[in-house]
UniProtKB/TrEMBL annotation:
Annotated protein name in UniProt: Tetratricopeptide repeat protein
Keyword Protease: no
TM region(s), chain numbering: 6-24, 101-119, 125-144, 149-166, 172-192, 346-371, 399-418
Alphabetical keyword list: Membrane, Transmembrane, Transmembrane helix
Species the sequence originates in: Desulfurobacterium pacificum
Length: 419
C-alpha cells in the first residue's frame, strides 16, 4: 500500500511539474540580478516586492532550498535560514577560551615553581638559577603573546617532567591534567578556526543548506582543480534553472576519467533532458550514471523519470528508504548532484601538537637522567619567593584558585570590552 501511495504522489507531482514548465522563463540568478539592479535604481517598494515574489516562486519550481541573497540584498529576513555548523563552531570557541586561559595560567605558575625548584637543587648553577628562571618566564610570556602554542606545549611538557623529581603526585596529576586541557583547547581551537576560515567548509555548508553556491566560492573551494570547479559551476547553473549548459557538460564528459565526476556530469545531463521533456534520453543518462557509480540522488532521478514515463515496474518501496534523507524530493523534480572539496583534516591539526608534547617529555626525561641534583635541598633565598611554602607542602588550593581568579577577570574584561 505504501509503495503505491509513494508512486502516485510522485507521479502527480511530476505531471504538475510539466504543466508548470511554461513558468520557466528566467533563471533564478537572472531574477536575483534584476532585484539587485532595481534596488540600486531605488525602484518603488511595489517593484521590489514583485521581484521578491518572483524569486520565491521560481525557487519553489527549482532544486533550491534557500535563497539567502534575498536577506542580504533587501536587509530583511525574507528567508528564515537555519543555523549552520559554522555558527555552532563559533559558540564552541567561546566556551574553549575561558578553559584555555585557566589552563595556561595554572601551567605558567606550576611550570615556574617546577623549573625553579628543580634547578636550585643543582648546586653548581649557583645564582644563575634566577637568571635562568626569569629567562624561562619571559620566553613563556612571549610565546603566549605571540600565540606560539607548539613551542608552549613543548616547554610545558618538558618542565612538567621535573615535578616527578619532587614526588608530589597531586601536583603531577593536576599539572598534566591542565596540559591535556590546554592541548585539547589549542587543537580544538585551531581545528575550528581552520574550518571557519576554510572556503571548502563554507562551500560545503552553503551547498548542504541552499543546494547551490556562488561562483567565487566554488573557485576558492576547488582551487587547483579547475575541471571540478567548472563542473560545479555548471551544476549550480542547472540548480538556478539555466538549462543551456548541456554542450559544455558534454565537452567536460569527454575529458574526465574520474567516476565521481562522470556521475555528476551524466546526472546533470539527465536533469536537463528531463526538464526539456526528453524523458527517454534522461532515463538512459541516469541509467548510465548508475552503472558508473551507485548514488541515491541518481536512483531517485531515474525513479522520477520512469514514473513520468508511466513505467509501472518501478519498485517504489525499495527506493523509499534510500531517498528518505535526500533534500528537495517533495518538489518532485530531478536533483542535480554536487561535487564536494576536501575538508580540513583534524589529524593534520592534532599531529604537530602531539609531536611537540612528546618531544618536550623526552627532553625533560633526558635532563632528569643526565643532570645530577641534590634532592631535598632548598636554598634560603629561593624560599622567600611567594608561594614556595605552599609548593613545598603540596598545598593545592592556591594553585587551583589563582588561575580561576585570572580566568574570571579575563572573562569579565572580555564582556566589558564587547558591551
Amino acid at each position: 500500500m505504501r509503495r503505491g501511495v509513494l508512486f502516485l504522489v510522485l507521479l502527480l507531482i511530476t505531471f504538475n511539474f510539466f504543466f508548470l514548465r511554461s513558468a520557466f522563463s528566467s533563471s533564478l540568478d537572472e531574477l536575483v540580478y534584476k532585484l539587485e539592479r532595481d534596488l540600486k535604481a531605488n525602484k518603488s517598494s511595489v517593484v521590489i516586492n514583485e521581484d521578491v515574489s518572483c524569486i520565491l516562486k521560481k525557487k519553489g519550481e527549482l532544486p533550491v532550498i534557500y535563497v539567502p541573497e534575498l536577506n542580504y540584498l533587501t536587509g530583511r529576513e525574507i528567508e528564515k535560514l537555519p543555523s549552520t555548523e559554522l555558527s555552532l563552531f563559533v559558540r564552541i570557541l567561546k566556551v574553549i577560551q575561558p578553559l584555555k586561559v585557566y589552563s595556561l595560567c595554572g601551567l605558567v605558575i606550576l611550570a615556574f615553581f617546577s623549573v625553579l625548584f628543580f634547578f636550585q637543587q643543582v648546586k653548581k648553577f649557583g645564582y644563575w638559577v634566577q637568571v635562568f628562571v626569569v629567562a624561562f618566564l619571559l620566553l613563556v610570556f612571549f610565546l603566549i603573546l605571540e600565540e606560539k602554542f607548539l613551542l608552549l606545549l613543548f616547554l610545558f611538557a618538558c618542565s612538567g617532567v621535573f615535578l616527578f623529581s619532587f614526588k608530589k603526585w597531586n601536583f603531577v596529576y593536576f599539572y598534566f591534567g591542565l596540559l591535556a586541557v590546554l592541548g585539547c583547547c589549542v587543537v580544538g581551537e585551531g581545528f575550528l578556526e581552520r574550518l571557519i576560515n576554510s572556503p571548502a567548509e563554507e562551500f560545503t555548508v552553503k551547498v548542504d543548506r541552499d543546494w547551490y553556491a556562488p561562483d567565487y566560492l566554488v573557485e576558492e573551494a576547488f582551487g587547483g582543480f579547475p575541471i571540478r570547479a567548472e563542473i560545479e559551476k555548471l551544476t549550480n547553473r542547472i540548480s538556478w534553472g539555466n538549462y543551456t549548459v548541456a554542450f559544455r557538460l558534454r565537452n567536460l564528459l569527454k575529458k574526465v576519467s574520474n567516476s565521481e565526476e562522470k556521475v555528476v556530469l551524466l546526472n546533470d545531463l539527465g536533469v536537463i533532458s528531463f526538464m526539456e521533456g526528453k524523458l527517454e534520453k534522461a532515463r538512459k543518462l541516469f541509467s548510465e550514471a548508475l552503472r558508473e557509480k551507485r548514488a541515491s540522488i541518481v536512483e531517485y532521478n531515474l525513479f522520477l523519470t520512469r514514473s513520468a514515463m508511466l513505467d509501472t515496474s518501478v519498485n517504489a518501496g525499495r527506493l523509499a528508504d534510500k531517498i528518505r534523507n535526500i533534500p528537495l524530493i517533495a518538489k518532485g523534480i530531478p536533483i542535480p548532484m554536487h561535487l564536494y572539496p576536501s575538508r580540513v583534516s583534524f589529524f593534520s591539526v592534532l599531529l604537530p601538537h602531539l609531536i611537540s608534547v612528546v618531544l618536550g617529555l623526552i627532553l625533560g626525561m633526558l635532563i632528569l637522567k643526565f643532570i645530577p641534583i641534590n634532592y631535598g635541598y632548598f636554598r634560603e633565598d629561593i624560599l622567600k619567593v611567594p608561594g614556595t611554602v605552599s609548593f613545598i607542602n603540596a598545598e593545592m588550593k592556591p594553585f587551583v584558585v589563582l588561575p580561576l581568579f585570572v580566568a574570571a577577570l579575563n572573562l569579565l574584561f572580555g564582556v566589558l570590552m564587547c558591551s
